[in-house]
TrEMBL record:
<keyword id="KW-0547">Nucleotide-binding</keyword>
<feature type="region of interest" description="Disordered">
    <location>
        <begin position="517"/>
        <end position="560"/>
    </location>
</feature>
<dbReference type="GO" id="GO:0004357">
    <property type="term" value="F:glutamate-cysteine ligase activity"/>
</dbReference>
<feature type="compositionally biased region" description="Low complexity">
    <location>
        <begin position="530"/>
        <end position="554"/>
    </location>
</feature>
<dbReference type="GO" id="GO:0005524">
    <property type="term" value="F:ATP binding"/>
</dbReference>
<keyword id="KW-0436">Ligase</keyword>
<protein>
    <recommendedName>
        <fullName>Glutamate--cysteine ligase</fullName>
        <ecNumber>6.3.2.2</ecNumber>
    </recommendedName>
</protein>
<comment type="pathway">
    <text>Sulfur metabolism; glutathione biosynthesis; glutathione from L-cysteine and L-glutamate: step 1/2.</text>
</comment>
<dbReference type="InterPro" id="IPR014746">
    <property type="entry name" value="Gln_synth/guanido_kin_cat_dom"/>
</dbReference>
<dbReference type="GO" id="GO:0006750">
    <property type="term" value="P:glutathione biosynthetic process"/>
</dbReference>
<comment type="function">
    <text>Catalyzes the ATP-dependent ligation of L-glutamate and L-cysteine and participates in the first and rate-limiting step in glutathione biosynthesis.</text>
</comment>
<keyword id="KW-0317">Glutathione biosynthesis</keyword>
<dbReference type="GO" id="GO:0017109">
    <property type="term" value="C:glutamate-cysteine ligase complex"/>
</dbReference>
<dbReference type="Pfam" id="PF03074">
    <property type="entry name" value="GCS"/>
</dbReference>
<dbReference type="InterPro" id="IPR004308">
    <property type="entry name" value="GCS"/>
</dbReference>
<keyword id="KW-0067">ATP-binding</keyword>
<comment type="similarity">
    <text>Belongs to the glutamate--cysteine ligase type 3 family.</text>
</comment>
Length: 700
């Protein structure tokens, strides 16, 4: 939460001796925090985004763009205001993995009013301006997912050479010098070293090159026998990418578990919609997204754990990296879709059960705790398990999954939260704000209509891979849950608005249960609108008797015919805009919901702009950032049809991006005819008065 505290990292040898210590105390800490906080009720909706940025330095004479390794100095300046007035700042700045990266969030979470949707983009703009003021005229802060020539020769400013043979190097990379790792906190280099040491070799990230007519094979650095592979060999290639995340607070733990589950199947869908990273180490690849790259970039599993050699020193084969899509649902309704065998230590699971944790949560936590700590500070080794949570957080925060279930921090007014983590960073504040507001609105619709998106975990995993394929947004199909009769009824008032792609849902019937009441207040929770309290359509097979306990053999969840038919392959267009008789569409559902809300005109206008943008991108009328970047490369006069994104192409591409983010150029393929959101950086006094009268938004 706060600024990262300094500390003394232990060596890998020392850390290794303490992995069971961290596990044991982490589990104890979770049990204590659970009992302290499980009955916490009545937290209101709060939410906030995180945007990561790359600092780029342009050499306008040589026509070269590089990442600028100045995040540490920049952060020192950006944090001055916060240090002087922690509660009064409009933005908060944190370090990220790259020495060229920073992460910005709003100064305070957004919350109780519909009008808050109108603040997001202005706040993002403020952040960008705040950084820009501190940069030189040849530098630029960019919310791009990946720097296209990251790891290509001389990609940093100042230039540093990698030292793969240097025993002191953390990464030992052929391409990514240690100087490109954030130097201001030991966490990042420690993680880099320990992940490599635990794995027993450097990480290995393989991407298929996009084969053009003149593509030279083997690609430089390709592994033996895999000539068409772009090989990346360092944590920085993944953790050095930027993303867009959002966190929201639930009214209680039950609602948090439910939202965690309902949003999990939407992760691959949102990944496909936000795809923004087709170029790695200066090569066009077959992938549009960062996800598998980051996943492999922190894959600390040994050969035994990866199943390459028989188990000997390690306990388990482990199916995925510690950075990947979630492996199990947490709510009773989700239990029957946990169809992938969960790996965990039976003893850890038993301790959790004996500690009073229910099966679904116990297996979730036990599964997180199959990972060893890969970053431990000497100051943190000995803790009071009844109060501290550092050991729990140590493992929790290095399980980087599509969703994160966040317990309240100790001694704070913060409640149970859920973090949505799949989205790629978009070029403009408009796009990033649109995505954030869309997802937050979706959570309201899920709770209000009691929507059910639950899809077997195995199918969500499949969707994750599909989402990353070239142009998946327009070309691929995704497993998606067909609406049940009851959902159709609840959402029967879906009105069709404009775009040709929409379903014509029947009009009439049940009004949605308003979560935003007439005052325009995001009528969070704690007032009987808790989705679970009145959720009578969920199949409550919560005992989980038919799902796996760790270590035992697989016994697949039985899915009868009706269940099988429930899941259909839909395009992104159909998922967002609707398919008659199958699914009303995410955007029409949101529109229907909004009709029951009283929304001020400006906010309404802004939300409309966002929804229209999302509909058009889903329909393929607008292209994803990834597709746009590909087109920029393929159409560049310097492009030799050899898959190579040269310094010059990279420079011109980033210059175009700069013009777009500054609003100097409206790129029709990305943004249509331009967007005119009425975003503001304050809530109009009239709405504030209402807020004061109703007394909402006050912390309980
Ligand atoms: P992390 O890096 O651990 O995911 P950050 O602190 O960087 O978390 O960002 C968390 C986000 O959650 C920020 O956008 C912040 O505004 C928001 N946030 C802060 N407090 C709350 C809260 N009580 N409920 C929901 N969101 C919150
Ligand atoms: Mg953060
Ligand atoms: Mg973080
Ligand atoms: Mg971050
Ligand atoms: Mg985060």
């Amino acid at each position: 939460m706060g600024l990262l505290s300094e500390g003394n990292p232990l060596s890998w040898e020392e850390t290794k001796k303490l992995v069971d210590h961290v596990r044991e105390h982490g589990i104890n800490q979770f049990i204590h925090l659970y009992h302290r906080l499980k009955d916490r009720q009545g937290d209101i909706l709060k939410w906030g985004d995180e945007v990561e940025y790359i600092i780029v330095k342009f050499d306008d004479e040589q026509k070269v763009a590089r990442v600028s390794l100045k995040a540490k100095d920049l952060l020192a300046k950006l944090n001055e205001k916060e240090l002087a007035d922690p509660n009064g700042v409009k933005s908060l700045w944190r370090p990220e993995y790259g020495a060229y990266m920073i992460e910005g969030t709003p100064g305070k979470p957004f919350g109780g009013l519909m009008a808050h949707f109108n603040l997001v983009e202005a706040n993002m703009r403020y952040r960008r301006e705040e950084v820009t003021e501190l940069l030189a005229s040849d530098e630029c802060v960019m919310s791009i997912t990946n720097f296209p020539r990251l790891g290509a020769p001389n990609f940093t400013y100042p230039v540093h050479q990698p030292r793969p043979e240097d025993p002191i190097s953390s990464a030992r990379s052929l391409y990514f010098p240690d100087e490109a790792i954030f130097p201001g906190h030991p966490r990042f280099k420690t993680l880099t070293r320990n992940i490599r040491m635990r794995r027993g070799e450097k990480v290995s990230i393989k991407l298929k090159v996009f084969k053009d007519v003149n593509t030279k094979l083997p690609v430089e650095g390709a592994p033996p026998g895999e000539p068409d592979v772009v090989l990346l060999d360092a944590m920085g290639f993944g953790m050095g990418c930027c993303c867009l995340q959002l966190t929201f607070q639930a009214c209680n733990i039950t609602e948090a578990r439910r939202l965690y589950d309902q949003l999990a199947p939407l992760c691959p869908i949102m990944l496909a919609l936000t795809a923004a990273s087709p170029v790695y180490r200066g090569y066009l690849t077959e992938s549009d997204c960062r996800w598998n790259v980051i996943s492999s970039s922190v894959d600390c599993r040994t050969e035994e754990e990866r199943g390459l050699v028989p188990l000997n020193e390690n306990k388990f084969r482990i199916a995925k990296s510690r950075y990947d899509s979630i492996d199990s649902y947490l709510s009773p309704e989700g239990a029957k879709y946990n169809d992938v065998k969960l790996t965990y230590d039976e003893d850890v699971y038993k301790r959790l059960i004996e500690g009073g944790i229910d099966h679904l949560l116990a297996q979730h936590v036990a599964h997180l705790f199959i990972r060893d700590t890969v970053s431990l500070f000497s100051e943190k080794v000995h803790q009071n398990d009844e109060e501290d949570t550092d050991h729990f957080e140590n493992i929790q925060s290095t399980n980087w999954q599509t969703m994160r279930f966040k317990p309240p921090p100790p001694n704070s007014s913060i409640g149970w939260r859920v973090e949505f983590r799949p989205c790629e960073a978009q070029i403009s504040d408009f796009e990033n704000a649109a995505i954030v507001c869309f997802v937050v609105l979706l959570t309201r619709v899920i709770l209000s209509y009691q929507l059910n998106f639950l899809t077997p975990i195995s199918k969500v995993d499949e969707n994750m891979q599909t989402a990353q394929k070239r142009d998946a947004c327009r070309k691929e199909k995704f497993w998606f849950r067909k609406s049940s009769k009851s959902t159709e009824q609840r959402a029967a008032c879906v009105q069709i608005n404009g775009t040709s792609t929409n379903t014509n849902g029947s009009s009439t019937a049940t009004d949605p249960i308003p979560l935003f009441n007439g005052t325009g207040k995001l009528n969070g929770h704690g007032n009987g609108l808790n989705g679970n309290a009145n959720n009578n359509n969920s199949s409550s097979n919560a005992n989980g008797s038919h799902i796996h306990n760790g270590g035992t053999d697989s016994d697949q969840t039985d899915t009868d015919d009706e269940e099988t038919e429930l899941f259909q392959l839909l395009t992104i267009n159909e998922i967002f805009n609707g398919k008659p008789g199958v699914f009303p569409g995410l955007v029409p559902l949101i529109r229907s919901y909004l009709q029951s809300m009283e929304v001020d005109t400006d906010t309404h206008c802004t939300i409309e702009q966002y929804l229209r943008f999302i509909q058009k991108r889903a329909a393929g009328d607008l292209i994803t950032t990834a597709t746009w970047i590909r087109e920029q490369v393929l159409n560049h006069p310097d492009y030799k049809k050899d898959s190579v994104v040269s310094d010059r192409i990279n420079y011109d591409l980033l210059k175009s991006i700069q013009r777009i983010q500054e609003g100097k150029h409206v790129e029709p393929a990305l943004l249509g005819q331009g967007n005119h959101s009425k975003t503001k950086d304050f809530i109009p006094p009239a709405l504030q008065k209402q807020l004061a009268k109703t007394g909402c938004c006050e912390d309980k």
